[in-house]
Amino acid sequence: MNPVRVRFAPSPTGSFHIGGARTALYNFLLARQTGGKFILRIEDTDLKRNTPEALQELLEALRWLGLDWDEGPEVGGPHAPYNQKARKDIYLRHAQPLIDSGHAYRCFCTPERLEQMREHQHKMKLPRRYDGTCRVLSREASDRRAESGEPFVIRFKSPLEGSTTVHDLLRGDITVENQTLDDFILVKSDGLALYHLAAMVDDHLMGITHVLRGVEWLGTFPLHGLIIRAFGWEAPVFCHLSVFLKPSGKGKMSKRDVTSEQSIFVRSLREMGYLPEAVNNWIALMGASFGAEEKLLSMQQMIAGFDLGHLTPAPARVNFEKLDYFNGAFFRYLPVQTTASVVRPFLVKAGLAVDDATLSQVAPLVQNRLVTADDAVDMASFFFRPEVAPPPAELVAKGLTPAQSQAALKRAHDILTAVPEPWTPAALEEPLRALAEALGHKPGQLFGILRAAVTGQTVSPPLFECMAVIGRAKVLERTSKALAILQEMNGTQSPEG
Description:
There is one protein chain. By secondary structure, the chain is mainly α. It folds into four domains: 86-240, 3-Layer(aba) Sandwich (Rossmann fold), CATH 3.40.50.620; 255-333, Glutamyl-tRNA Synthetase, domain 2; 336-383; 392-490, Arc Repressor Mutant, subunit A. 45% of the residues lie in helices and 9% in strands. The protein has 19 helices and eleven strands. β5 and β6 form a beta hairpin. α15 (402-418) packs antiparallel against α16 and α15 (402-418) packs antiparallel against α19. The radius of gyration is 32 Å and the shape is elongated. The termini are far apart.
């Protein structure tokens, strides 16, 4: 393909979700694959709902995902400004020729009159659309009323007869009967253009060659085609992406369908410990094929493998289990120091005093066990706590009595005290395995007692690697406290150590 010019044009009215992220990703991939341009354009004319906070969240999310734009906010470009609110005069200049050519008209109907019209249509079970009262105004009457200062909106004059056909890349030709079309508002009474006019004007002026956007615009797609034709412009290639379904596969996915352990918002996914590589891989495969459904794809592989012909209009089920799979798999490919930097904020947020020297040793122990970064808190917090509090019952090995467990731990404590430097996993494991054999216990019994004493947990990364990182002094301190707990359970004198 020749270099394309594509745009992602979100409206920052709330948290940025995976549907928007996928639209941005597909546009980004197409631009990078063809050596074209990825343009970020902000549709911010909804003054009541757009917020600076939502815009900032959007920009941060795109950058976290690695979807850097070539033109747009904070970057600039030859078609600045890249937010609709600042382009108000541009749209008004383009609305006037539509009025002059008879493709649009001023509508002076008051909100009260429109409400009465809608109530009548509802009562009579008629289609809800503008009834054309101002459509038949003469141009002279329209000009006179506008010049007198009477408020008006500008509506597109949709054809009343025949049909309109537009072409979608995924769905082919889409034909609607013109009598079903509404005379949509193009410009509001405050002079701000609506999406229908603004987006078509911006796409033309910015040289957009392909429009990959959400399926929610499919209903007004014929109107957009009519606007483009009214101007006499060449239409870009339109592609309306598939909709996301609930995990059950029934019904459209929405923010009301997620649990405390799930989210469809990019910021929340980041805060929950997901990696941008995994999120990109996950959403890329919900609507497109890259060869193997569960294949791990780097950004470069997605760029190379993206194909408009491999997009599908079929709804895509949101599968959070697959996101977990991708995230855990990507963790295994990360450099250890990258893993350390990813999990560090989660450990700090949990109130742990994290030192980088210890973290660099901990990261390789937990990396292959992580699903999300916040798993590191439960998995590795004992490395950074001054002390641990093992549940007494966990210090008693299965099949052993408290007295036998105490005796075994005392012997292990003595061995650990005598292990020469260097304090390595191998130096620790060999004598402790020999101890288990000498005591007639299974290794798992002895190691389970030690794991509970040293980590305060029943599950941890490999025991001897953990003990090597924790260090001799802290390990002996923790085994001593565990012996005291067992002594209290047994009602006997605590062995010295």
